Structure formats: structure tokens, C-alpha cells
Amino acid sequence: MTVANLRRILAHPLTIGMDLDDPATTALRKEVISTKPLLKAIYDEWYGMLAAALPPGDGPVLELGSGAGYCDRYIPRLITSEVFHCPGVQLQLDAQQMPFPTGSLRAIVFTGVMHHIPNVRLFLAEASRCLRVGGKVVMVEPWVTPWSRFVYTYLHHEPFDTEATDWSFPSSGPLSDANIAIPWMVFKRDRAIFESEYPELCIEEIRPFLPFRYVISGGLALRNLVPAFTNPLWIGLERIVEPWMQQLGMYAFIALRRR
């Protein structure tokens, strides 16, 4: 049996066959998260991490890619946004050209968005412009390790190209086009280039984590691959392998601070 056939068999019934670039698919993904306890626990963890990393003080916090999520339950007065119109989302905007005054944002947060931005340089320039001094970009993004390289190459539906020479890609759709490797390329492989081009953005933390649970949850596209009651066992296993996250982590928590 091919991987493609296996994915069709395991596809989540709510979104099977739907166009990734259709806003209706993003709206249905919110329901997918709410009905999958393993996946919801992961999003709860992600949003808690984002909220805990916010800089102190008042000021607006912007979330990119809010359509399928519920980060506003964790961050009060969060400005939610999406690249296309979605029910319950406050703003429709392009992360490469954001409608905020210079120095006006306390933070920009997101999960799984950066690798969908066609020209990351434009986003980084805009983030730097919009953030106040001491403001942060806080994200959870796919990460490249020996284990994740195997998963993203053979088991994942999104494009994955660690050999790409640029931090951009041609885009014909906001979600169907991507390069999962871009966060790793920018902040790891090409870190010296990033630091040279954006000296005002300091990398505060890069922490690889989550080697197994997202895979066994089935993510947004597939059914649960294991029963929900096994979640504590998988959390325990991930704690045991914590010293090897540089080899096993599939995602990374990344925090940038505006100097």
C-alpha cells in the first residue's frame, strides 16, 4: 500500500477532499481540533506557551492564522487575523504587509503560519516595523531534525525542501503552497544571514519539542491514530527523550525580541 493510499484511508471525514485554500476548510478545522482530544491537548499546550512568552505590559497582541484556532481564550484582547475571511476572525490581512502603525504592537503570535508565507523577508521586515522596542514574535513552527526530516519527506502532505536557496516560494494559494523547512532555514541553517539582515530582531529562544504526539494525533488532516486515553503515556515518553530533542523534535518554539 502506498503512502497516498494510506492517507486517503485515514483522512479525517470532515475535511476529506476539500480544497485547502477554501476558507470553509479552515472553519471545519476548528471543529476537527475540538473533536480530537489528543490534538486539542497539543493546541492547548501551544497557546499556553505563546501566552507565557508575551512581554510584560499593555499593548495590542496580533495573532496570524487565527481561522482554525482559539488562541483568544489564552490571550485577552487578542487581535485575531487570517489571510482570507473567516467567521469569528477580526481582520483579514497579509502578513507581508500589515495595517498597523510603526511600533504599535506588543507581540505577534502564531502557530504553523510562517512556512506558508511566500516571502518571509517581507514578513520579518513588517514584524520589525510593527513591533515596539521589547516586543516579540512568538511562534510554534515545524522544525528540521533527523526524525522530522523522515516524517515531513514521506508522511506529510505539505512541500518540504531543505535545499531551497531562498526563503520564498511561488504561491498560487494561501495554504496549499508552503515549504515546511523555512523556519529552520531562516533561524538555523541561515542564522548568520538572518542576524545580518535583521539586527533589530534578537533570537531569544529556539526549543525543539513534540517528536511524537502530533503524528499520532493525526494532526488536522487525519483521524486519531491511537486512543485518546494513551495521551499521558506519550507525554511521558516525550519527557524521557527530552535530551534528544535536537534529533527528534518535529516542532520548535521560537521567540524573537525587537531590540
Structural features, described:
The protein has a 7-stranded mixed β-sheet with strand order 3-2-1-4-5-7-6, sandwiched between helices. The termini are far apart. Strand 4, helix 4 and strand 5 form a beta-alpha-beta unit. The radius of gyration is 18 Å and the shape is globular. Helix 6 crosses helix 7. The longest helix is centred in the N-terminal third of the chain and has 16 residues. The mean pLDDT is 95. Helices cover 35% and strands 17% of the residues. It has 259 residues and is an alpha/beta fold. It contains 10 helices and 7 strands.
Short description:
Helix content is 35%, strand content 17%.
Task: List the SSEs and their pairings.
Blueprint: H1 3-10, H2 23-35, H3 37-52, E1 61-63, E2 79-82, E3 91-92, E4 105-111, H4 120-130, E5 131-142, H5 146-154, H6 182-189, H7 191-197, E6 201-209, H8 213-217, H9 231-240, H10 245-248, E7 251-258
Parallel strand pairs: 1-2, 1-4, 2-3, 4-5
Antiparallel strand pairs: 5-7, 6-7
Helix pairs in contact: 6-7
